[in-house]
Design goal:
Length: 401
């Protein structure tokens, strides 16, 4: 009965990791998947997470009963506070709610499903959804699978100047049909590592408000861009202070290093409490038929960890990335590799968009056993003091051969 099922293509980033694992070359390096690695190329369980996990195991008051459909209440409120700030007026006005989700992906998917059902009419699959060009590879598919038929790119990356195409972005905002949905990366844009400045965010917000465009923030790297949870939430908090009703899909995969626990939250900022209550009642219906109720371990860890405790560990990760950025740039400059490499230290967060073209990427993988995405994106956390000379030399060869 399934004889006509076609083979689906592999997910690029996971395929890259599988290829890397099979490679037996002693100097192989994986700069693909977006996960933190220590300077010994090992995954890192954050010390604060380990501490809280021990407390959870020892806590006899905890059990494995079902959580409420919308998730662990203290996790939901802690998450919204991380995004909007402890003293957020919107939270004080009781018009902010959270939906615990399976990772940032789950938060995006639940949010997309809700928007298709209830935004801009009911079941309106024609509302345009704009995602940045380029963007995280899953954005298109998540919205498409939620039923949206018109998914469009908005200008973001200017390849020639290796920076933000602000004029193109603002023009797209001006021209987008009213009520279009815009997916905005809250910080540490994946894959370009390039964020708007505060002044640029203000311009974006001004047009979005005037043109009645819906803001859907994707916040997967809070803390990773600057080492500060507050700074990295600046754009979100600014939009909320401007009176936007919006969604924030939050992932705790990267900043808590909880990749496989699937911890996420959809923060909903509504017009008022009565409106919020109705929105959450519909969210509950969506979750009930999707995963029914979420898992508890990651949510307990996040809600029991104070922001002040986590940020120390996040800073350790962010600082190591900064060091690798500095070193990679200096090494390429010392080698005299053609081109400018300033963008490596100008970009922020986990990734760098190197500017390597597909042919150069192929050379890196096939000849040098350095694995990176076809777009030229590298995960800076994959670099270590032990492999950085080899990677710099490989880039040099790829560019000059
Ligand atoms: N959004 C962006 C921009 C991402 O880069 C990622 C993960 O790579 C996610 C969302 C999804 O995060 P999660 O693993 O928590 O689903």
């Amino acid at each position: 009965i399934f004889s006509d099922v076609p083979q689906a293509p592999p997910v690029a980033v996971f395929k890259l990791t599988a290829d890397f694992r099979e490679d037996s070359h002693p100097q192989k390096v994986n700069l693909g998947v977006g996960a933190y690695r220590t300077d010994d190329s090992q995954p890192w369980v954050l010390p604060v997470v380990k501490k809280v996990e021990r407390l959870i195991v020892e806590d006899d008051s905890l059990n494995h009963e079902y959580l409420p459909i919308l998730g662990l209440p203290e996790f939901r409120s802690a998450s919204s506070k991380v995004a909007l700030g402890d003293d957020s007026p919107a939270i004080k006005e009781n018009r902010v709610g959270g939906v615990q989700a399976l990772g940032g992906t789950g938060a995006l998917r639940i949010g997309a499903e809700f928007l298709r059902r209830w935004y801009n009419g009911t079941n309106n699959t024609a509302t345009p959804v704009y995602v940045s060009a380029p963007t995280w590879e899953n954005h298109n598919a998540v919205f498409a699978d939620a039923g949206f038929k018109d998914i469009r790119p908005y200008h973001y990356w200017d390849a020639a100047k290796r920076g933000l195409d602000l004029a193109g972005l603002l023009d797209d905002l001006e021209k987008a049909p009213e009520h279009s949905i815009f997916v905005l990366h809250a910080c540490a844009h994946n894959p370009t590592g390039t964020d708007p400045t505060q002044e640029e965010w203000k311009k974006i917000a001004e047009i979005m408000k005037r043109r009645k465009l819906f803001v859907f923030f994707d916040s997967a790297y809070q803390g990773f861009a600057s080492g500060s949870l507050e700074k990295d939430a600046w754009a979100i908090r600014f939009f909320v202070s401007e009176g936007f009703e919006l969604f924030v899909a939050q992932s705790f995969s990267k900043n808590f290093g909880l990749y496989n626990e699937r911890v996420g939250n959809l923060t909903v900022v509504a017009q008022d409490n009565e409106n919020l209550t109705r929105i959450l009642s519909q969210m509950e219906k969506i979750v009930r038929t999707t995963w029914s109720n979420p898992p508890s371990q990651g949510a307990r860890i996040v809600s029991k960890t104070l922001n002040s405790d986590i940020i120390g560990n996040v800073k350790t990760m962010a600082d190591r990335v900064l060091l690798m950025r500095d070193q990679l740039k200096s090494k390429l400059q010392a080698l005299g590799t053609p081109g400018t490499w300033d963008h490596i230290t100008q970009q922020i967060g986990m990734f760098s968009f190197t500017g390597l073209n597909p042919k150069q990427v192929e050379y890196m993988i096939k000849e040098k056993h350095v694995y990176l995405m076809a777009s030229g994106r590298i995960n800076m956390c994959g670099l270590t003091t032990k492999n950085i000379d080899y990677v710099a030399q490989s880039i040099h060869e790829a560019v000059t051969k």
